[in-house]
Amino acid sequence: MDQILTIGLNGLTVASLYFLVASGLTLIFGMMRIVNLAHGAFYLLGGYVAFSVLQGTESWSLGLLAALAAVGAVGVVMHQVLLRAIEHEDMRVALVTIGVSLILADQLLVYYGGVAHSVVPPDFLSGGMELGVAGIVYPRYRIFVLGLAILVGIALWLFISRTRFGMIIRAGVDDRDMVSATGINVRVVFAAVFFIGSALAGLAGAVGAGAFSLAPGTDVEYLLYSLIVVIVGGMGSIPGAAIGALLVGLVSQFALGYTPAVASIVTFALMIGVLAVRPQGLLGRTA
Amino acid sequence: MTGPDLVARDPRRNSPPDADSRRGWRRIFEGSKGAGIIAAAVLLLVAFPFVVPQPQFWVVSIAIRSLWLGVVALSLIWLARNTGMLSLGQMTFFAVAGYTVGVLTTQNDVPYVVSIPAGILLATAVGAVVALIAVRTQGVYFLMLTLAVSQLLYFLVLNAATLTRGYQGISNITRPEPFGLSLDNRNVFYFLALAIAAGAFALCWYVSRTPFGLALRGIRDSPERMRALGYNVYLYRMLAFTFAAFIAAVSGALAFFYHGGITPGAIDLLRSIDVLIVSVLGGINSLWGAFAGALGLTMLQNFAQAGWIPMRRVTLTGVVFVVVLLFFRGGIVDLPRQLREYGRTGRRAWNGWRGRDLGGDRPASGRDGDGTRPERVAVGSKLSPPGRSGPQIDDGTRSTRTGER
Amino acid sequence: MRQRRTLGRRLWAMPVAAALVLAACQSDEGDEADMGSPDMDAPGEENGEDGDGEGTDAGDAEGEPIVIGRISALEGPYAAGAEDGERGVEMVLEEFDHEVAGRPIEVIVESSDTTPETAVDRARKLVEQDGVNLIHGPLSGAEGEALASYAHDTEHVTIVDAASGASTTTLSDPAPNYFRWHSEGAMWTAPLGPHVIDELGYERVATLAEDYAFPHAQVGGFLEGFCEAGGELASTHWVPLGESDYSSVIASIPDDIDAIFVALGGSDAVDFLSQAIDFGLEKPIIGGSLLVGSDVLESEGRVRENVEGIVTSMVYPPSSADVYEWQDFVQRYQEMFPDEGFETPSNFAILYYNSFKSLLLGIEEAGGVVEEDDGESLRAAMSEMSWESPIGPLELNENRQAETDVFISEVVENDGELTTELREVAEQVEQPDTPWERLDECPS
């Protein structure tokens, strides 16, 4: 019983991290039809930035903020410099981001080497806490990640569905010319979306690095997980990403707990199963 | 989007679908100049192992490697050209073939005459199964799905250690000796690889020209119209995907003997990306591009490693990939034309800058994005009314905007 | 019209791409200055890199340069370890003043990513393109197996293993031109099993390890001695190499065990150790040989707080141990690499050092004859040779495999610093007769 609860909690908290990563990916796709396959490398970059800032300033929250801002900025630069001219060709854009991902990950390996790095959370978040259920003591930090993911999810949803900016974005995707005609600078709006989406990857990296160490290869791992999450949940849908993350997190953790040898296969099988039934993902829509 | 943005499709010549396949080949094969070029190329390829210095390096590490890598890329390019589907999963079938041969022969002593066809057959069958799901998706969805499938297989072989020996993989094989010719001999291997590559190329080229190939391109360009004409679009796509899996499987069997075995490292994500890079580098609009790209990438990686280029191998690969994607869309095979084009544009820009007389023709750098509109309208001639796409962000497959509709 | 517009825009972006390329080049060069070595491609670069004119030293020696191709896992999960290995090689080069048997040494370093394909690719490149007759490498078990099989194809090339630890490499059909101057993975943990029972009193254990050749050997070696001495195996847990999430694996470890044997390395070890604390794994940890190497002890983060008390067996002694010439080696390492190195040399530094020095000693013994007789005299020399390394006497058995001492030690905290302290030395541990596959129960 303890074991099931603990693994369930692991599933939830890992799902939170997957959601943080995947939400940025799905946001950018939903708004701009761009699949950013450098998203995993952005995660890695975020983690390393947070690590360096934490080393330099001894402030964990500053590290988080720096990761958020730096990776967001990198995303905007990538979009403006490399992707804008080919924005309408979604396949070519996806491939360019693969190239960026290769370059970025390789350069990070140069600077940070192969040693595992982790971003040590502040004291008030470390250690375990009593959950009051079945005497389980669970790491406080993971509970924090769970809370953060819920917060980010709600904020994103409100932002897109309830704010004027969100409305502009939705309209801009639909008919850019019309929105431009109303005097709104669509380019600025799209840059903002790219900033937010990338910054989410950076934030996820900074937060994730408190639970799992960063090393070469982490980028591919998180890219794959976020792809699976958004494919399962439906590309472009924030609630879909949440459901996808939850499914992937729980399935992968229970598989890891009970049949660790085939854990990764079970996760992929989940994805293929979902696709066989709903090619557009659980909450995706058909065209 | 069905990936047509990477696959040449001139909007002005949207139909008939067979036109674009004929045009290029006719030009090459008709006329004595073309025949001369072909003859020279064949001669060069045959004489190659006997004339190069350091044959061990040039024949084995460059030529044979380029040949098998080219065949995998060939399967990707063929699929992309004829169906508009860009796959990151060709290494899946490559791996199934290699592993089947390895498991059957090295661990169960099945002779190669049986295990090689069995491997290719099984890989093709796996291709058909993957196709069942994969061809229902389009564009970037298809790309991601095939990528995920290749990763699934990667983890599968990693974990099925009793069969595949996990991380270590299968090694220490004895190469077969067909007709008393040992594949340990590099020239024998070279000509075998050359023959297989030529065969695969001829087959791909031929299939493109059959009514089946024509129908595929018809479906690529306008699935609705083809459906209306009574074609089973799903079935055609599935068959195409399976055929591409077959070609990739052939390469997998060949590479198995090249490496003297197979391990998970040979089929991981980076290798799948390598195949994609090869295709884009060579030129995804032409079947020749597969081999041009394979040669290009093999040389690039070898020479980057040798320190001729002051950049890390992976970084260099990434940079070249991005530069080709942005500036040389036709890849290597189309390089001369693109360079001429750049020369012209450069001159014109120079003249324009000096004379300020062509300003209207060039985009002011401030305006953006709109330049794409004309093409989109031209290609997706049946662009849906705006209302149908819906304003929500969770409109899953609207990427089909210019593709299937 | 449309075509031209896009072209125009692409032209505009051209300088940007050029800048990107430049940036990539630059950062690369900067790296070499900073960190010593992750990207050593150019032939002979090794000579130039140490500064103080070794390049000219090499020129002083008479005769043709002797070219040694090296394959080091500078990419991938063991990059940090490989970098430390490179330091070991530098120490040897300095010791020999960059020449051997009167011939200057030229080193060509190829970087691998710990996959066998890459290792063989790099070996091919070294042999075929650069024409080397000597290869020093690789680092990881799977690479070692692949190279041992490649050795059969290239009989004129002599391969000296750098640090790989898979059992089969020198056990099943060992190649006559493949030499390994350190023990393999199973030998490293063989004395640990009895020690755990006799000295620590743990009688029921679970094992957790990555699922590939080296940990297979480590678990096999451990379980053989452990089960033979009457120990009981509760469960085995295998994870893929590179697994970062151990929370649910930890949850599935049975409660009724005395200790858990953990054979993980690199970033996997860091992740496991930090999560073991978070998730309240209170069982004592018995470590495989890579669990608490210097790279783990010195990695950043909270792991440091959690490794105290771990008992491991390693192929090299703790830095504080006063055995053989070990203290001299540690001191020289610290003098040569005061900043960029680890505080104390890792297993890769000493293994690279021993293997590379063995190769050079062999060349010296063979009178510098390497190319002419396809390595015959070099192989004969190395097979016969023995020498006193910093971690004990080295000589080869009939499989061209060394049987070295194994050092069982414990992690202790000393003035706030984590160090390892020697508990027992098992002398000249023998090579087992059969390679260990993945074990899920006690070997019979």
Describe the structure in your own words:
The complex is a heterotrimer of chains A (about 290), B (about 400) and C (about 450). By secondary structure, chain A is mostly helical. In chain A, about 75% of the residues lie in helices and about 0% in strands. Chain A has one domain (about 15-215). Chain A has 11 helices and 2 strands; from the N terminus they run H-H-H-H-E-E-H-H-H-H-H-H-H. A two-stranded antiparallel ribbon of chain A has the order 1-2. In chain A, helix 2 runs antiparallel to helix 3 (about 60-85) and helix 6 (about 165-175) crosses helix 8. In chain B, helix 3 (about 55-85) packs parallel to helix 8, helix 3 (about 55-85) packs across helix 12 (about 270-280) and helix 5 runs antiparallel to helix 11. The model of chain B is unreliable at about 10-20 and about 360-405 (pLDDT under 50). Chain C folds into 2 domains: about 45-185 and about 325-395, Rossmann fold (3-Layer(aba) Sandwich); about 185-315 and about 405-425, Response regulator (Rossmann fold, 3-Layer(aba) Sandwich). Chain C contains 15 helices and 15 strands. Chain C has helices at about 1-35, 45-50, 55-60, 80-95, 115-130, 140-155, 185-190, 190-200, 215-230, 245-250, 265-280, 295, 325-335, 345-365, 375-385; strands at about 65-70, 100, 105-110, 135, 160, 180, 205-210, 230-240, 260-265, 285, 310-315, 385-390, 390-395, 405-415, 415-425. In chain C, the strands form 3 sheets. A 7-stranded mixed sheet of chain C has the order 8-7-9-10-11-14-15. In chain C, helix 5 (about 115-130) runs parallel beside helix 6 (about 140-155) and helix 8 crosses helix 9 (about 215-230). The relative contact order of chain C is 0.13. The chains are: A mainly alpha (about 290), B mainly alpha (about 400), C alpha/beta (about 450). Chains A and C meet through helix 1, helix 4 and helix 10 of A and helix 1, helix 4, strand 8, helix 10 and helix 11 of C.
Output mean pLDDT of chain A.
86
Summarize the main sheet of chain C.
7 strands, mixed
Biggest beta-sheet profile of chain A: 2 strands, antiparallel
Which percent range fits the helix content of chain A?
Answer: over 70%
Radius of gyration of chain A: 19 Å
Shape of chain C: globular
Major sheet strand order of chain C? 8-7-9-10-11-14-15
CATH classification, class level of the largest domain in chain C: Alpha Beta
Membrane topology (chain A): Multi-pass membrane protein
GO biological process, one term (chain A): amino acid transport
Main location (chain A): membrane
Family (chain A): Belongs to the binding-protein-dependent transport system permease family. LivHM subfamily.
